[in-house]
Amino acid sequence: MTDTLNLLQNHRTYRQFDESYELSPEELQNILNSARQAPSWMNGQLYSIIVVKDPSIREKLVALSPRNPHIRKSSVFLVFLADLKRTQKVAVQHQADYHVGDSVDPLLVATADCALALENAVVATSALGLGSVVVGGIRNEIDAVAELLHLPDYVFPVAGLSIGKPAVDMEVKPRLPEKAVVHFDTYQDYDYSLIEDYDITMKKFGEKRETKDWTQKFLDVYSAEPTGKIDAFLKKQGLLK
């Protein structure tokens, strides 16, 4: 139990991998088995995983997400999908109505199922002495990624996962103060100084790839006008009306 807790509490993200390292079939299978054993709503398992080994496909993914060259340089790249196509097949088979898209709830459930499977894969990767990085950037050019991976309707790419042998050691990144994240019994407001303190903490941590304060980074993200690209994709896939 102590080993498991240490693994979870010392998680770190790796973006640089030994390109000569080949993931064994046993290692990959252990990661996939662990991902598939994740909890899911009603045992629905509303996700799928694409194992991307083909170098040409991975090169194209890097071209679509140029800030993530590790997609090509890692040992394997997994794409985790929220998948409501499987249950649509059930509805077709039984000639039943299928109201996915009438509410956002099915998409939220499938995304949660997908995220749980993804986290299991991350933990399994660490347990094998390997490293990984979650790649949300695959959603930036979501239509092109969907076409490249031949995604059918009712399927949405949530995130990718680069896996390999780390080439550079990384420090454990500080997290937000507990009082800003953990609440007991009810949601409780907290002083904004906790967020300001985290800016200072991250500045001292000095991660080279972070060029902005934590607060500024998310100010920039959420003050910008939405492009509508994701919404349009979800509607096209039948996941949102």
TrEMBL record:
<dbReference type="GO" id="GO:0016491">
    <property type="term" value="F:oxidoreductase activity"/>
</dbReference>
<keyword id="KW-0288">FMN</keyword>
<dbReference type="InterPro" id="IPR029479">
    <property type="entry name" value="Nitroreductase"/>
</dbReference>
<keyword id="KW-0560">Oxidoreductase</keyword>
<comment type="similarity">
    <text>Belongs to the flavin oxidoreductase frp family.</text>
</comment>
<feature type="domain" description="Nitroreductase">
    <location>
        <begin position="9"/>
        <end position="165"/>
    </location>
</feature>
<dbReference type="InterPro" id="IPR016446">
    <property type="entry name" value="Flavin_OxRdtase_Frp"/>
</dbReference>
<keyword id="KW-0285">Flavoprotein</keyword>
<protein>
    <recommendedName>
        <fullName>Nitroreductase domain-containing protein</fullName>
    </recommendedName>
</protein>
<keyword id="KW-0521">NADP</keyword>
<dbReference type="InterPro" id="IPR000415">
    <property type="entry name" value="Nitroreductase-like"/>
</dbReference>
<dbReference type="Pfam" id="PF00881">
    <property type="entry name" value="Nitroreductase"/>
</dbReference>
